[in-house]
Amino acid sequence: MKIKAIPTEAQEQKALFEWAEWAKRKYPELALMYHIPNEARRSYALGREMKAQGLRSGVPDICLPVPRGGYGALYIEMKRREDSRLSDNQRGWINGLNRAGNRAVVCKGWEAARQEIETYLNL
Fold first, then answer.
1. DSSP letters along 58-123, please?
2. For residue range 45-97, what is the model confidence (pLDDT) as tens digits?
């Protein structure tokens, strides 16, 4: 029996940014899209220092700081296609960002994120 490999969140995110690099011809705004690196394991000392500098647990992985359709920006919490779930902190950030006038969503897999970005940019 063959076991199906599920891409990691990092692999999904890399695929999304590879697509974005190619798609900048159609959507130049993608040049502004960036990753918020808050998921890495760190030493206690480095984690404490980064928190002092503004690191916040639960912030979505990706930001596209381009207003569209009445939203201020698009935030994406990237998840694996299977076997993934939101933490309470992530849920809180998504809800707060949406209340603040942004579009914040969860996308399972890079294709879902690509569709969300294209829909957003075409608002």
1. T--SEEE---BTTBS-EEEEEE-SSS----HHHHHHHHHHHHTT-EEEEEESHHHHHHHHHHHHT-
2. 887 888 898 888 899 999 999 999 999 999 999 999 988 899 999 999 999 99
Domains in the chain (CATH in brackets) are 9-121 (3.40.1350.10)
- Coil, helix or strand for 52? helix
Is residue 10 helix, strand or coil?
A: helix
Candidates 98, 30, 89; CA nearest to 55 is 89
Query: E strand or H helix at 34, and its extent?
Result: strand 34-35
Please calculate the CA angle 79-80-86 and round it to the nearest 5 degrees: 40
Q: Residues 30-52: what's their mean pLDDT?
A: 85
39 or 85, higher pLDDT: 85
12 touches 81 (CB < 8 A): yes
What is residue 48's DSSP assignment? H
